């Protein structure tokens, strides 16, 4: 993690928002679709800045991109389960955003699926808070929307 | 290395894209709950592109919709997982997605329930030729999602017109054609031939949803 990329290496230097520099191989960097066009025009002294990615997230992303091909085909599921196992909800969310920003091959699906499982059994209020979504329904509109869930024809008299 | 995810000051556009991805992995029944989150989630869940992506991923949820007929012709639709059926696991939850289906159908003036596929149920309305109502010359087929309660638009309905003669029974099946990315309906029209020299006549037609094109006919 040198402060300055060494000109002799073939690797790509990525700088995170918290100022850390990571050197990765072109094969790894090319799987981050957002920076792909930048790689072509860069030489070994170029440092690509990632304004929306923290060092923690980039560490995880590189762990995934290096670890997945190394896993046997039958062990990929286990590798992915292990990869997300110890992450807190906030860390999952942060990593998903970083992955979405970099458009990392394969990892967007895994992260989105993991976050989906996380919110599966959560209330509307929890999900709003988690994503920082502002409820823009009026109380009447929200009540109507909630009511639509219950089967609309319960209690209707029959012929 | 904790507490570094404060920089989530991402543009709303990216977050929307990601929410699109997240929601596409959720079972349909949960999408109903999350329609109440805010207006943009509600419209996202009804967006045709979202529905298409959700359908592609839906088989991974491996849920099955069964329509049950109870006393007095009461019908309900329930959703349960293939796994629970295969392993005969009676304790695994099934979700009732629609009760009193017969009543709902009556309101929509639909006379029959076809099969289900990808969580959609095929509904058939038969138009009688005469007031006695025992011969039909026109069928309208629509697709209905019992969870979102969205019904395919009128333009996407399928009119199965029977020229000349009446058929006294019709069976409908439908499936999703991955190649053309359209739903296709096969109609088996049967004329028992009581009126015409005891000749039974069967006609099989394949239709494509969306453009009312009849692709294949076999008499």
UniProtKB/TrEMBL annotation, chain A:
UniProt family annotation: Belongs to the SKP1 family.
Annotated pathway: Protein modification; protein ubiquitination
Lineage of the species this protein comes from: Eukaryota, Viridiplantae, Streptophyta, Embryophyta, Tracheophyta
Ranges annotated as spanning the membrane: none
Biological-process GO terms, alphabetical: jasmonic acid mediated signaling pathway; protein ubiquitination; ubiquitin-dependent protein catabolic process
Assembly notes: Part of a SCF (SKP1-cullin-F-box) protein ligase complex.
Alphabetical list of Pfam families matching this protein: Skp1, Skp1_POZ
Coiled-coil region(s): none
Record-given protein name: SKP1-like protein
Automatic annotation (TrEMBL), chain B:
The organism's place on the tree of life at top rank: Eukaryota
Domain F-box stretches: 14-54
SMART domains (alphabetical): FBOX
Pfam families linked to this entry: F-box
PANTHER family, per the entry: BNACNNG10540D PROTEIN, F-BOX PROTEIN CPR30-LIKE
The protein, known as: F-box domain-containing protein
Native species: Lupinus angustifolius (Narrow-leaved blue lupine)
Phylogenetic lineage: Eukaryota, Viridiplantae, Streptophyta, Embryophyta, Tracheophyta
